[in-house]
Amino acid sequence: MGETIRVGVLGARGRMGTEICRAVGDAPDLELVAEVNRGDALTALTHAGVQVVVDVTHPGAALDHVRFALDHGIAAVVGTSGFDAARLDTVRGWLAERPGHVLVAPNFGVGAVLAMQFARQAARFFDSVEVIELHHAGKVDAPSGTAVRTAALLGQARREAGLGAPPDATTQELPGARGADVDGIRVHAVRLPGLVAHQEVVLGTDGEILTIRHDSMNRSSFMPGVLLAVRNVREREGLTVGLEPLLGLGD
Amino acid sequence: MGETIRVGVLGARGRMGTEICRAVGDAPDLELVAEVNRGDALTALTHAGVQVVVDVTHPGAALDHVRFALDHGIAAVVGTSGFDAARLDTVRGWLAERPGHVLVAPNFGVGAVLAMQFARQAARFFDSVEVIELHHAGKVDAPSGTAVRTAALLGQARREAGLGAPPDATTQELPGARGADVDGIRVHAVRLPGLVAHQEVVLGTDGEILTIRHDSMNRSSFMPGVLLAVRNVREREGLTVGLEPLLGLGD
Amino acid sequence: MGETIRVGVLGARGRMGTEICRAVGDAPDLELVAEVNRGDALTALTHAGVQVVVDVTHPGAALDHVRFALDHGIAAVVGTSGFDAARLDTVRGWLAERPGHVLVAPNFGVGAVLAMQFARQAARFFDSVEVIELHHAGKVDAPSGTAVRTAALLGQARREAGLGAPPDATTQELPGARGADVDGIRVHAVRLPGLVAHQEVVLGTDGEILTIRHDSMNRSSFMPGVLLAVRNVREREGLTVGLEPLLGLGD
Amino acid sequence: MGETIRVGVLGARGRMGTEICRAVGDAPDLELVAEVNRGDALTALTHAGVQVVVDVTHPGAALDHVRFALDHGIAAVVGTSGFDAARLDTVRGWLAERPGHVLVAPNFGVGAVLAMQFARQAARFFDSVEVIELHHAGKVDAPSGTAVRTAALLGQARREAGLGAPPDATTQELPGARGADVDGIRVHAVRLPGLVAHQEVVLGTDGEILTIRHDSMNRSSFMPGVLLAVRNVREREGLTVGLEPLLGLGD
């Protein structure tokens, strides 16, 4: 077995951070050498000899953290949600001038990412597709961010394949019955106590249906994706967006 | 084995009528003695000694057919969709003055009726419930009539149990994402080629989910319900609405 | 609002007991007045004026606890699994000689009990039925106790309706492919990390499928059933077995 | 739009053949120029100027048909089930000595093939996986051929990823409850009237589940795959096995 990777966590005391520290601590090939929280100096990372830092703070702070990591030869895995296109461009600019390894992922759920990519790959072979996402009743946004991203990928795949609008003969509709329209794709959001986070993509052609469903029961489902990123970020030069390139999926 | 029941079918050449004639013909305890179509005289029923007539014509004609049946001591099973409250009241008026047996059912799918009733019975034990119906892309109305009836039953059951509005923390919604509101219940309509007619009622409480799903693949699924009605209509005095009383379900 | 019910819990420090104490404490119409653990004297119940005691200890102890409750005019709710037919007979014997209220339930999951009863009620209307249960990979028995009970109920319902063996044309089978045979009903047990406790009963007739699925995510799903029992046990004279009579279901 | 492809069908009067003739006839870019049945001379193909022939006869005849096609510069699409490894080797031998285009597919259901490939790609990211296939009660083999192939692909993917046997704590089992063991993967076969042909691959890791389900309602679901093969067979030199290479999926 090779050497272990020295890992630091920024935002170590948050809910995701706590889980990540535990998962890194449990992995035989990783070593947790720095837990950094709000108010702590980033130099804790360099003093501890961190090779890969995982950032689960917030978008405003994350950009500075990435800069610090690049300046000190540390690879960065960013799981902060809301790291937008402008911030990605800033990071790209930095990486144009120097070597470095940064991976930014909006979703570390390997299953969720696989589900989304399989749906996208299948889209062009089916006449139509809809998305049903189901979450606990305490969720404030509908549809979920994952469902919106999924629908956008499906819409794009259909356009690239030259498929027109999905067939729909509806002429009498109670408002909302057919769901929200995201990029031409219908998205339905179910909210119920007892649910956690679930999504179904249902694809149909005369005579057959393909359903790709993902159920996420708790935060621990993100850990395999975080560890995958930590283990592989230094293999990829520059900026990597999303877990997809690490999963070895087709185009 | 007892005597067979002599059965006539009105609308015998239509799609449902054809199936019914075949199903009656195949049943050892039933005898198909009259197939009546548009333009044929109703006296074909009396000449053939029909004991139970099944009407699958259209709402306008069906009322006259029921009257004829009552006048001639024939029990009537009406499967014509759109036999509305006013027509039911007319039949009730006739039956107040004379004995007779009439069964009117908006849905002869035994499974569909069971699913609806189970959902209604379960509703008061769960914090919330939503309906997802899924049909082929050629359907013109959304939600389906069955989904609207189901939601109305669920809403009523919740009110009778003193349950308030289902919990829903949604504050940001793309229009339509949360479905249609039918009697306080959210109903989602999915339309895809490859689907036939499907419905899911999903009930949730913290920690558990109960799902009742019905899949109807083709018209043959209605035959058991039609035969059940034919075999039992004469046991029930007056007007019976729906298959439910024949299914021996609880309150 | 009426007076509160004074509740005691036997086995209060166990996993189920802890949940029950919390649930009773949170219910405005119930008052938790005694938490009794191994080694504590049962007189804690009488001193605290307990009206309903919930026993989640073990079958051996539970019988003595029921006796004590009956001797002191306390109603008993027994959730101890493994309270077998012989013990039930003993309790019946005691109750033949004196008034008292005892409810013994093998499963306090309201959703699980509803699912089982709905499946039983539907069984006679379908040509065939199979059970699929899905649990986490740490479960030692396959199929689950609930699946075995469900299959027994389905087998009995089919026999009572005069239905023969379910149709099955299988002539070439890899051993085990068609599941276990429980009372003539095929039962399939799936084991996967990420699952919790789930069961599907799938009923089929030519042209239609009815699926009744229950998902239990955690122990909190049993609390509504426990509270239902506590609130209603004193309304029913003698011994009540199972939650079913409290759920107002049909025959 | 380019020229149309001239298509011939061998076994044109069979159930699959009839559907294929209709689908080819309906496709604007294809032209049905020869329908050949048992007893007809194969020279009907050359006389009609067939460019691509679709063979849905039987394995014994299909080999001769492929030879004839190769001898006359006709591309061949073979959908005959049971075209085994020995026959494939024979075709490979012929193609080593001359140019030609042959595509042999055990399954023309695009959705079924996608489902199988997605499951295979996902397998290495999950701790465990099981297969549930559900078919009508008239099916003679259990599990289905597709389920066996799927399990073999899953088992291979797990071995290549260095994953051991799926976790399973079962110590008490009713015979058959845990399904059949195919290449280390548990496979469950459900048989019910009302079902057609369905398959679910369920993958699990602590905290998340990924389900890939395919429902095939009727034979028309195979037509898109047949047409895909007809349109693309001449683009690929030599022998192609399975639709996969035409679907642009990753490794």
From TrEMBL, chains A, B, C, D:
The superkingdom of the source organism is Bacteria
Q: Which reaction does it catalyse?
A: (S)-2,3,4,5-tetrahydrodipicolinate + NADP(+) + H2O = (2S,4S)-4-hydroxy-2,3,4,5-tetrahydrodipicolinate + NADPH + H(+); (S)-2,3,4,5-tetrahydrodipicolinate + NAD(+) + H2O = (2S,4S)-4-hydroxy-2,3,4,5-tetrahydrodipicolinate + NADH + H(+)
Q: Where does (S)-2,3,4,5-tetrahydrodipicolinate bind?
A: H136, G145, T146
* Metabolic or biological pathway: Amino-acid biosynthesis; L-lysine biosynthesis via DAP pathway; (S)-tetrahydrodipicolinate from L-aspartate: step 4/4
Identify the PROSITE patterns for this entry.
DAPB
Chief site of localization: cytoplasm
Query: Which UniProt keywords are listed?
Result: Amino-acid biosynthesis, Cytoplasm, Diaminopimelate biosynthesis, Lysine biosynthesis, NAD, NADP, Oxidoreductase
* A Pfam family annotated for this UniProt entry: DapB_C
User: Where are its TM segments located?
Assistant: none
Q: From the UniProt record, which GO molecular function terms apply?
A: 4-hydroxy-tetrahydrodipicolinate reductase
Tell me the ranges covered by the Dihydrodipicolinate reductase N-terminal domain, including all copies: 5-108
Instruction: Tell me if Cell inner membrane is a UniProt keyword of this record.
Output: no
Residues binding NADP(+) are R38
**Matching InterPro entries:** DapB_C, DapB_N, DapB_N_CS, DHDPR_bac, NAD(P)-bd_dom_sf
Tell me the enzyme class: oxidoreductase
The EC number on file is 1.17.1.8
Q: Where does NAD(+) bind?
A: G11, A12, R13, G14, R15, M16, G79, T80, S81, A105, P106, N107, F108
| Annotated catalytic residues | H135 (proton donor/acceptor), K139 (proton donor)
* Domain spans labelled Dihydrodipicolinate reductase C-terminal: 111-245
Q: What does this protein do?
A: Catalyzes the conversion of 4-hydroxy-tetrahydrodipicolinate (HTPA) to tetrahydrodipicolinate.
Query: Quaternary form?
Result: Homotetramer.
User: What family is reported?
Assistant: Belongs to the DapB family.
- The name under which this protein is listed is 4-hydroxy-tetrahydrodipicolinate reductase
What is the scientific name of the source organism? Answer: Pseudonocardia charpentierae
**Gene it is expressed from:** dapB
